[in-house]
Design a protein that fits this description.
heterodimer, A: about 350 residues, alpha+beta, 5-stranded mixed beta sheet, 9 helices, rod-shaped, B: alpha/beta
Chain lengths: ~350, ~240
């Protein structure tokens, strides 16, 4: 039993007892308190307790809160009307039983108007409870929804932040700046070019990545800049072979996705080899899909599995699309191939 | 004042331009001699063994491993300043007091300060005349346990205990496993400083707080870190002579 359930079980019971106590008080003040009126008071209290408890349990089990507002209100209203009628009938039954057993003298018959009066009285009592209970539930649901909304928002922000960090890998940026420093003495023209390339990458990361889609043409231009800066770092260790189909250049893909794959290929492949290796980059388009493949020498990491920030972001990004794309990492001939397929 | 002996520096980085940049920066600092370069872990280990640099400027990420892999298992560790573009994770693994590191691009003034500190340490602990000789009290060793690493001066070691085929080194309030046998370590340590108390344990005699008599003519050494080590009967006589009891 949850804390909330326990709380309502207590409130239910106290409410039933309080109703009994109120009736006892009224009978003692305005009529006579005898065994008949005691039985009526207790029976009414038990009836109210039973109806409100049943309502609570049924509402939770059958998820009344999930229904529309009209259906929910109708259900509550019928509980009030029928529940109070049932309580009235129960009380009548108990009184007759008690009379038959000779516990109490024959009570006077109630007129129809009196009966409707009692019914209304009980309906008000049950109605008060139902109103309180429904209000409480609505407030709890509202707060719950608010928390869920805030949590979703914070997850989204975290994802965006991760994405930004993945795009602006500080290791890459500071190494590039360090290399430029050395190049300024050694090859000023190349230093100037590298600064331009680095600026393009930073600008792209800050501006374009906020778009939903980019063209392969733009993304290839970004990757060219990226590979140029990395070539300054790795020099002869980074060799690139490209195979980009012309008809694929207008295809759409998430911004920075290709760059992410290239970055991973360098980080997990080229940079781990003293002699470096060949990075392959291919793109083609057919049967409504864009197929990208980035390969580098190396083995699939078994431990830790490839669940970096970048790939997590990419997978989340792919899942968001109306027709989800696919991403896979495969090992083939001592090379790791990252394959991305995107419906166009 | 005598002419100061130049500090002999080895540069280790897998990127040629990064090594070039350090050369350029070091050229402006007086009394520095660059004795070599290395671009990967094995080359760096060979260079340290062959050249005995006073100071190594050591990159953290290299193709076949990390800068820590370079230091792991070296007989005696030279002064080390790590260089990293952005690797707070690796840097954080280190005991902060022992670690000197520079971020790339390196600020000339920070490099100057790092060299100054290395020089100060050199003056305090002049290198052994014979590089292959015994480890002195001020010589430092590199210890690694899981993700954590330490530079430990030999005098800081309390005791060394057999652990399988390897040895567990206790120092300060820490311990770390060293991938060498106790016998190998014993042969490298100064016998006037380290004493083989029993089959399993080497004790730094400078760390002994008290000597208690134990049964069977043995002794019980109480050490400054609160631990106690039993001295076997066979070694008890040796200890008496050593301490002139």
């Amino acid at each position: 039993m949850t804390r909330n359930e326990l709380r309502f079980v207590c409130i239910n019971s106290i409410y039933g007892i309080a109703y009994t106590a109120m009736n006892v008080l009224f009978f003692s003040q305005f009529a006579r308190l005898n065994s008949a009126t005691w039985i009526v008071s207790v029976s009414l209290g038990v009836g109210v307790w039973a109806v409100t408890s049943a309502l609570r349990i049924a509402a939770v089990r059958r998820q009344w809160m999930e229904r529309g507002r009209g259906s929910f209100t109708a259900a509550l209203a019928s509980v009030v009307v029928l529940g109070s009628l049932a309580t009235l009938l129960l009380t009548n039954l108990v009184l007759r039983g008690s009379t038959a057993l000779g516990w109490i003298p024959q009570p006077p018959r109630s007129s129809l108007a009196q009966s409707i009066g009692y019914w209304t009285n009980i309906a008000i009592i049950i109605g008060l409870w139902v109103g309180f209970w429904a209000g409480w539930q609505a407030l709890a649901r509202y707060r719950h929804g608010e928390i869920a909304r805030l949590r979703a928002e914070s997850e989204r922000t975290t994802l965006e932040l991760d994405a930004l960090r993945a795009r602006l890998n500080p290791h890459f940026v500071f190494n590039a700046l360090n290399n430029v420093r050395a190049l300024i003495n050694e090859d000023p023209a190349r230093a100037r070019e590298t600064v331009t390339r680095l600026s393009n990458i930073l600008r792209h990361a800050l501006e374009h990545s906020q778009r939903d889609w980019a063209t392969l043409r733009d993304e290839i231009a970004l990757v060219d800049d990226y590979l140029a800066v990395e070539s300054v770092h790795y020099e002869g260790r980074l060799r690139v072979r490209r195979d980009i189909a012309d008809d694929a250049l207008d295809a759409r893909l998430p911004p920075m996705a290709l760059q992410l794959l290239v970055e991973n290929a360098i980080k997990h492949g080229i940079s781990r080899l003293a002699g470096g290796g060949e990075l392959t980059l291919s793109a083609n388009r057919g049967s409504g899909r864009l197929r990208l493949e980035v390969g580098s020498p190396g083995r699939m990491a078994v431990d830790p599995p490839p669940h970096g920030v970048g790939l997590t972001y990419l997978r989340a990004r792919l899942a968001q699309a109306p027709v989800p794309g696919t991403f896979e990492l495969v090992e083939h001939d001592a090379r790791v191939l990252a394959r991305l397929e995107l419906p166009q | 004042m005598n002419a100061v002996r130049p500090i002999r520096v080895l540069i280790v980085d897998d990127t040629r331009l990064a090594r070039q940049e350090l050369r350029t920066l070091l050229a402006d600092i007086p009394n520095v001699e660059i004795i070599g370069e290395a671009d990967d872990v094995p080359a760096a280990r060979d260079a340290i063994d062959a050249l005995h640099p006073d100071l190594v400027l050591l990159d953290i990420q290299m193709p076949s491993g990390t800068g820590f892999d370079v230091l792991d298992g070296l007989e005696s560790t030279p002064a080390v300043v790590f260089t990293t573009a952005y690797d707070t994770y690796a840097v954080r693994a280190f005991d902060a007091n022992a670690l000197d590191y520079l971020v790339k691009p390196v600020e000339p003034s920070r490099l100057g300060e790092a060299l100054q500190r290395a020089r100060a340490r050199l003056v305090a602990a002049p290198p052994a005349a014979e590089p292959r000789g015994l480890l002195g009290a001020e010589d430092q060793v590199f210890l690694r346990e899981g993700e954590r690493c330490w530079f430990v001066a030999v005098r800081e070691i309390t005791r060394i205990v057999v652990d399988g085929n390897y040895a567990r080194v206790w120092f300060r309030d820490e311990c770390a496993l060293l991938g060498r046998s106790l016998a190998t370590l014993e042969s490298r340590l100064d016998p006037t400083m380290f004493f083989r108390a029993n089959r399993n344990t080497l004790v730094n005699l400078r760390m002994v707080k008290a000597v208690d008599l134990a049964v069977h003519d043995g002794y019980e050494l109480r050490l400054r870190d609160g631990s106690s080590v039993a001295v076997s009967r066979r070694q008890a006589r040796e200890l008496r002579e050593r301490l002139a009891l």
